[in-house]
Amino acid sequence: MWMTIIVLGLTGAACLGYLAFVTKHNALRITFVAATVVVLIATLVMSSVRFVPADRVGIVTKNALGPSLTDGRIVATDGEMGVQADVLAPGWHFGYWPVLFDIDTVPLTEILAGQVGLVEARDGVPLDEGQLFAPEVTSAEFKRKIEDARHFLTEGQGRKGPQSNVLTPGSYRINTKLFNVRTVSATQVPEAAVAVLKANFGDTPTIETQVGDNDQPVLLAGPNERGVRVRGEVSYDTNNNSVTFSPLAPLAEGTAFTMTLDGVRDVAGNTAPTINASFRTFL
Question: Is 72 left (phi over 0), alpha (psi -120 to 50) or beta?
């Protein structure tokens, strides 16, 4: 669209300039000159207009008039050249002139019912040594970080790499140059199965518990600790042939868990394959 505006504007300005040059009446010449200036200014302003539809996000890349990104960064937060942290919301936007800026419109990130979104950040504060995932944050803070790349990269101190939090079903306006989102199916525990919740990262587990009278104590994981996190009881319902695992305490809110289904056998002694899956509790 901007190319059409520039061509039409320059053509109109050239015609008016020619008329100003050939006319012999001073008053008319002044009118044509003034009209030429107005058309050029209008062309300059209108060529900077960008429109983002309601179901898309505008990703801005600055091509000139700024310093280069340093220290391996790929997303700009302070006027540097390159992909900008701030995205364009739906509507009309002014000041994004051709050549200086490229605008790519991408679809909203959609997480459907029955799915979760696994997020990986391409920029941010490096993970600590030995850390596999970014530290967990509240659901509200995670949503803000995901939809506000500037906050993620500045005061939010977002970590580069896989995020512990996941996206729940909904629509998100995400800077896809910063965040890669992969959708996976939410986990359902089948009947006659038991889910053991295990965190794959965190500090060394510290909760000691006795499983049986003659058994050695085992360590369970508390908040921000790795290992099996949940103590509970198992019950069997003969009416519908189902096994239920009931935690002895409520699961921590906004926390990622891993479930392992292992050692499930039918009446003939056949063992089902081990299943590992992840889910997150809501706030």
Answer: left
Q: What pLDDT is attached to residue 30?
A: 73
Contact 280, 257 (CB under 8 A): yes
Of 255, 114, 118, 120, nearest to 185 by C-alpha is: 114
User: Are 187 and 279 a contacting pair, CB within 8 Å?
Assistant: yes
**Which stretches in the chain have pLDDT values below 70?**
1-10, 12-22, 29, 32-33, 36, 39-46, 187-203, 206-267, 275-283
**End-to-end CA, the chain:** 45
Cross-strand pairs, 218 = 209
Q: Judging by DSSP bridges, how do beta strands 82-88 and 91-93 pair with one another?
A: unpaired
For the chain, what is the largest distance between any 2 Cα atoms, rounded to a whole number of angstroms?
112
pLDDT digits over 47-79, tens only? 778 899 999 999 999 998 889 999 889 999 998
Is the separation of the CB atoms in 119 and 163 below 8 Å?
A: yes
| Distance separating alpha carbons of residues 119 and 117, to the nearest angstrom | 6
**pLDDT for res 148:** 95
Q: Is the pTM here over 0.70, yes or no?
A: no
